[in-house]
Amino acid sequence: MPAEGTYPPLFTLKAVARDVWIADGPIIDLYRMPFPTRMTVIRLGSGDLWLHSPIAFSADLLEALQEIGRVRHLIAPNWLHYAYLQDWADALPAALTWVAPGVSQRAADRGVRLRADHLLTDAAPEAWAGEIAQMIVPGSRLHREAVFFHRPSRSLILTDLIENFEAARLPWHLRIVTRVAGNQHPDGSMPRDLRLTYDKPALAGAVNRMIAWEPDRILIAHGRWYPGRAVAELRRAFRFLDL
Q: Is 223 helix (H, G, I), strand (E, B) or coil?
């Protein structure tokens, strides 16, 4: 049976839009808070697959991925989302790993083996520049997250900038925690402790850029994602910035 709080079926490709899938994974414990995990998969025009925040490695999931393309790019989008990257890299030695600022140092500090082939920046690399826009959200020295916009499907891909835990999937005490933290559905947002690390004008500028991309949907790593009304959801989730 899947653990409470997850989004079964796990380790299964679920179509979101043309050439876009998600795969939900098991719970990962972070500071005694159980986080459901999710990765986003994009098939580039070349046929190569781009995996954002890979979930726990699964041979069956890898087989399913290889049926739709060649896994070429493994993305660690921020300092908290690298735990399974090396497992996928070990299974796919020809794939390239791409890490956000702070990821390599975090792994080194924790004694975690991590192969980091490339550092993510504000400029999309040639491999996906024509299809996926990206930026490193400024304003926090602690949390430097790479966000992505898949132009063909108009999908915005975030990691921890919005979390949207569903109370019905949580034990009672975590329902209280997520409500206080401000990251509970239907009003999911950036958790309040993370907000405190940001310079608001810098963050507001990044959010306005996301709005200017005019996404149709928002894919997130933790909790219920947003299949529509993406611009309205961005304005709602970041209303604390007085956009």
A: strand
- Is the whole model's pTM more than 0.70, yes or no? yes
Please give the tally of structural domains in the chain: 1
Range of the domain at 64: 13-160+217-227
Q: Is 21 part of a structural domain of the chain?
A: yes
Question: Does 4 fall in a domain?
Answer: no
The torsion region of residue 205 among left (phi > 0), alpha (psi -120 to 50) and beta comes to alpha
Residue 66 falls inside a structural domain: yes
- Kindly report, residue by residue over 135-185, the tens digit of the pLDDT: 999 999 899 999 999 999 999 999 999 999 999 988 888 899 999 999 999
Which residues of the chain form beta strands (DSSP E)? Answer: 13-17, 20-30, 33-43, 48-52, 70-76, 96-99, 118-119, 132-136, 146-150, 155-157, 217-219
CA dihedral 197, 202, 206, 208 (to 10 degrees): 120
Q: How far is residue 6's CA from residue 11's CA, in Å, rounded to a whole number?
A: 11
Which residue is listed with tokens 């990206």? 134
Pairing of strands 118-119, 96-99: parallel
Helix (H, G, I), strand (E, B) or coil at 35: strand
The single-letter code of the amino acid at 84 is Y
By residue count, the chain amounts to 243
CATH number of residue 46's parent domain: 3.60.15.10
Phi, psi of 191 (to 5 degrees): -60, 145
